[in-house]
Design goal:
Blueprint lengths: L1 E7 L4 E10 L3 E13 L3 E2 L4 E2 L8 H25 L6 H14 L7 H11 L2 E2 L2 E2 L2 H21 L10 H13 L5 H20 L27 H9 L5 H14 L5 H4 L7 E6 L2 E9 L6 E5 L2 H9 L8 H14 L5 E11 L5 E11 H4 L3 H11 L5 H8 L4 H7 L4 H13 L4
Antiparallel strand pairs: 1-2, 2-3, 4-5, 6-7, 8-9, 9-10, 11-12
């Protein structure tokens, strides 16, 4: 009898499978959950990860595979003696071996399965999972784990039903005092985990596929800055050098539409010149951190003036940037009363103090964040450039996601419609 590990699947990222072959008497295989490797990191001859693997601790993974292989050999010999060798043998060995690692039976306990999955989820959509994604997933898992503990229940795969999600949403809203946006993320996380469970060949309640298995995210009142407001910021004198630096970054962001993680890391090395018909044009070339897309952003308006004049400003942390741009916009007199949400320290009904987004009417400068740059760029360019061109600059892959960034008011849309109607010849 031999145990073999091999990779299967299309593309560079492949899934690990284990196979038991004992002549013609027994030949079964199954996918190893949570293990997805780059083909270039896998040693086919040794059936182990190569040293210097980029995504995993190769020593830890190879030791894990050796332990599992030994467990299979031991269990196979025992099964032959007892006559219990059947189609479910390999799955039973896997569940038995990893049960101690997961802390419970992952074939039935949903919470324990998710815990084990997150401990090894290093690749998502063919790319290494980012720190922010892992942090978000762990936060969503903490809500689920605390729910099970406070309800004093075991959540089985078979119990992920409409009744479960209804009670879970009520718990998050009424006992954890979370907003609809966070609750929507928590429900989406449950749906994602249910699909992963099913992909691993484990039976799970199918209610997660029903339309009722969802909660609507509350629509935000995200602000954007008009061209006139941007011009006002440009002409406003700052009180200190820190505000001046933040102002320069803000203006660059407003005319590039880059995410803050890309914006604040720009240097002169990002400036490239492209030639067409004998004329050259300067662009910002950047590989976005979030999507890994390479985008070329033309130098426009105030961004062009700043970069070609004194170059990129001194780097500042994103937290400082978010704090300082509120001061910049306050000095520019962006005091229009605007509906939105501001993070505030509030006392919850249980007496605990926590940060929550509080909806209300605020001065516009209070609602400005780093993401205002991206929304403002998409909104101000909308109607002046075709959507495909704007998406090529912002790096949006989904049109639906792009349209969420366009924040034109109903009033401005009505005025635009009236102007277009007047131009129609009947």
């Amino acid at each position: 009898m031999r145990v073999n590990f091999n990779l299967k699947g299309d593309g560079r990222i492949k899934r690990l499978h284990v196979r038991i072959a004992d002549s013609k008497r027994f030949d079964k295989q199954m996918r190893m959950p949570h293990y997805n490797f780059l083909e270039s990191d896998w040693d086919k001859k040794r059936q182990r990860l190569k040293p210097r693997c980029n995504m995993y601790d190769y020593v830890e993974v190879n030791e894990d595979l050796t332990k599992f292989e030994n467990a299979i050999y031991g269990a196979f010999a025992l099964a032959v003696i007892k006559g219990t060798l059947d189609d479910a043998f390999l799955r039973r060995v896997f569940n038995s071996h990893y049960k101690s690692c997961m802390g419970n039976d992952t074939t039935t306990n949903f919470v324990m399965w998710v815990k084990g999955y997150l401990s090894k989820e290093l690749i998502s959509k063919g790319r290494p999972v980012s720190f922010n994604t892992m942090r978000g997933n762990n936060l969503m898992f903490s809500y689920l784990e605390e729910y099970a503990q406070e309800r004093k229940i075991i959540i089985y795969h078979s119990g992920i039903s409409i009744d479960f999600i209804t009670d879970y949403i009520a718990y998050l809203r009424n006992e954890r005092y979370l907003g609809n946006g966070t609750i929507s993320l928590a429900v989406s996380f449950i749906k994602k985990m249910c699909k992963q469970v099913e992909d691993d060949g484990i039976t799970i309640c199918q209610d997660y596929k029903r339309s009722e298995f969802i909660t609507e995210a509350e629509k935000g009142n995200d602000v954007y800055l008009t061209v006139e407001e941007i011009e006002r910021i440009s002409k406003t004198l700052m009180s200190n050098i820190h505000q001046e630096i933040a102002k320069s970054w803000l203006l660059i962001g407003l005319w590039t539409g880059l995410r803050v993680s890309d914006l604040l890391n720009l240097t002169a090395d990002n400036i490239v010149e492209l030639e067409k018909d004998g004329a050259t044009e300067a662009f910002i070339k950047v590989q976005t951190k979030k999507t890994k897309e390479v985008v070329f952003v033309p130098l426009l308006m105030h961004a062009k003036e700043i970069i070609e004049g004194k170059g990129f400003p001194e780097r500042i942390p994103a937290t400082n940037f978010n704090r300082l741009i509120k001061q910049v916009c306050q000095l520019a007199g962006l005091d229009t009363r605007t509906e939105g949400k501001v993070a505030k320290s509030v006392v919850l009904p249980n007496g605990k103090r926590s940060k929550r987004s509080v909806k209300g009417i605020y001065k516009k400068w209070e609602l400005v964040t780093s993401h205002t740059c991206r929304r403002s760029f998409a909104t101000n360019m909308h109607g002046k450039l075709d959507d495909r061109s704007i998406m090529a600059i912002t790096g949006h892959k989904s049109y639906d996601m792009f349209t969420k960034y366009v924040k034109s008011s109903k009033e401005s849309q009505a005025i635009d419609l009236a102007e277009k109607v007047r131009k129609i010849e009947f």
